[in-house]
Amino acid sequence: MAEQVTDANFEELVLNSPVPVVVDFWATWCGPCRVLSPVVDELAEDFAGKVNVYKMNIEENADATTAKYGIRNIPTLLFFKNGEQVDKQVGACPKNTLADKINALL
């Protein structure tokens, strides 16, 4: 299952991670986010030890991180490698599409 990340620990967990990272930006009221959530959890299990997968609730973290990365639509997944954003997926999509993006990070 994907863990939660916040504005307070984003730099530590995402930008300073020794492995690639996927961050799912979501909100409780977002229907497509609820559809994508189990897929993100499955990917976290599938890639455990190779990629860290986190979820960021934009309602609870509406300032620093969401503004910095220009998150305007959700769900949005950002893909990081060596502390740099290298890919982005806006909107729900099939698991294999996300798995391909993650494999590209490895």
Polypeptide structure, described:
The chain has 4 helices and 5 strands; from the N terminus they run βαβαβαββα. 36% of the residues lie in helices and 25% in strands. The two termini are 20 Å apart. The protein has helices at 10-15, 31-46, 64-68, 95-105, and strands at 3-4, 21-26, 52-57, 76-81, 84-90. It has a 5-stranded mixed sheet, with helices on one face. The model has no long low-confidence stretch (mean pLDDT 95). Strand 4 and strand 5 (84-90) form a beta hairpin. It has 106 residues and is of the alpha/beta class.
Quick synopsis:
The protein is an alpha/beta fold and 106 residues long.
* Alpha-beta content class: alpha/beta
> What's the pLDDT, averaged over the residues?
95
Shape: globular
- H/I helix tally: 4
Strand content: 25-35%
Low-pLDDT ranges? none
Query: Percentage of helical residues?
Result: 25-40%
Distance between the termini: 20 Å
Largest beta sheet, briefly? 5 strands, mixed
Task: Provide the succession of SSEs.
Answer: EHEHEHEEH
Strand order of the largest sheet: 1-3-2-4-5
Question: Tally of extended strands?
Answer: 5
Task: Compute the CA-based radius of gyration.
Answer: 12 Å
Question: Top keywords for this entry?
Answer:
single chain; about 110 residues; alpha/beta; five-stranded mixed sheet; 4 helices; 5 strands; about 25% strand; globular
Topology:
Blueprint: E1 3-4, H1 10-15, E2 21-26, H2 31-46, E3 52-57, H3 64-68, E4 76-81, E5 84-90, H4 95-105
Parallel strand pairs: 1-3, 2-3
Antiparallel strand pairs: 2-4, 4-5
